[in-house]
Design a protein that fits this description.
By secondary structure, this protein is α/β, with parallel strands linked by helices. It contains eleven helices and 18 strands. Helix 4 (159-167) crosses helix 5. 49% of the residues are buried. The structure holds zinc ion (2 copies). One zinc ion is lined by residues 101-102, 105, 107-108, 116, 118.
């Protein structure tokens, strides 16, 4: 099989060829049809996240082993299955749920594998889909995409389920406007799913006018320039006193400050983005304003199944998707790092 491998953090991915693995036990072998390039892949390739104040969280310290095939947004066609893989049809087109836990701890058993303390996530802690083949450890992680286009369904595995998981944490979704910070690929996905889930209206914040325009065209009721000093006040004015919910898809010091300042009493700030940084918070206003600060990390397997069902019912989110050959992975990562990607780029083996 051919692959783009991370052999050293901070260095370009390397093109390599190895014998295609034979699935054992419950494993299923997919021929990769599409692998989305996610912003987190930049952090994974760098090998660290920024914790603020010069501190870093190393992925290798947290169990990432090299060489690694990146890619956690994968759709593939089943080509083979191990002797214990039940109910798998060769030829079926499947989305691979990448947020795989140990499968045995209490958290995993109640269906929240994305919160397991021993994650084996595809493309992070085990090999992902920047390749022409992908091994998935158990058929339960495969979800039939029906007749959805592979390259447009692939981003549902991270971008989709991450925003779906965040939107599900908003109790006022249908009654009140929701503020979405960040109008990149994740923001446009969030906006589309917000609508599909019957959301009231969305106020989208971005510092980039091109991305604000994309959000407006995608149905945002209002857009706010997050770079303006009165951005929080604009949110407070537009929501008549503050937002009941802010979903922060950026996760920087500035976006967190803005999101928390833009809340009404009793409001909820959900942080999803992993841009990095830190903030200092005065404590008395947290109880006095009765605000909630909640983290949201990708999504669970049941949420992924719900999401695919929702999309098969309401149609694919209209997020722009461009396809590129697998061997262009390094170029695509560079373009993403430079902020040149609107929507999603999906790699396809050729
Ligand atoms: Zn991702
Ligand atoms: Zn577990």
């Amino acid at each position: 099989m051919r692959m783009m491998q991370l052999c050293q953090c901070g260095a370009p991915l390397q093109f390599n060829e190895q014998p295609t693995p034979k699935p054992a036990g419950t494993e299923v072998l997919l021929k990769v049809l599409a692998a989305g390039v996610c912003h987190s892949d930049l952090h994974i390739a760098d090998g660290w996240f920024d914790l603020g104040q010069g501190k870093r969280m190393s992925l290798q310290d947290r169990g990432m082993k090299l060489p690694l095939i990146l890619g956690h947004e994968n759709v593939g066609e089943v080509v083979a299955a191990g002797p214990e893989a039940q109910g798998v049809k060769v030829g079926a087109r499947m989305l691979a749920h990448p947020w795989i836990g140990c499968g045995t701890c209490a958290v995993c058993r109640r269906g929240e594998e994305n919160l397991c303390r021993a994650m084996k996530s595809l493309g992070v802690f085990s090999n992902g889909g920047y390749a022409d083949h992908l091994v998935v450890p158990h058929p339960r992680y495969l979800i039939d995409i029906g007749d959805l286009a592979a390259e447009r369904a692939a981003p549902l595995a991270c971008s989709g389920v991450t925003t779906y998981g965040a939107l599900k944490k908003v109790p006022t979704l249908k009654e009140e406007p929701t503020v979405i910070i960040g109008a990149g690929g994740l923001g446009l996905m969030c906006l589309a799913l917000h609508k599909a889930m019957g959301g009231n209206s969305a106020i989208v914040v971005d510092i980039d006018p091109v991305k604000r325009e994309a959000a407006r065209n995608a149905g945002a009721a209002m857009v706010v320039d997050g770079g303006r000093p009165d951005a929080a006040q604009q949110i407070v004015d537009a929501t008549r006193g503050g937002a009941w919910a802010v979903i922060d898809l950026v996760g920087s010091s500035a976006s967190a400050r803005l999101g928390i300042d833009g809340l009404i009493k009793g409001g909820k700030y959900v942080i999803v983005g992993l841009y990095g940084g830190d903030i200092a918070l005065s404590l008395p206003p947290i109880p006095m304003r009765a605000i909630t600060i909640q983290g949201s990390y990708v999504g669970s397997l049941p949420e992924m199944r719900e999401l695919i069902e929702l999309v098969r019912r309401t149609g694919l989110p209209g997020v722009p998707v461009a396809t590129r050959p697998l061997k262009d992975a390094n170029d695509v990562l560079g373009e993403l790092r430079a902020g040149k990607v609107v929507g999603r780029v999906v790699l396809q083996p050729v």
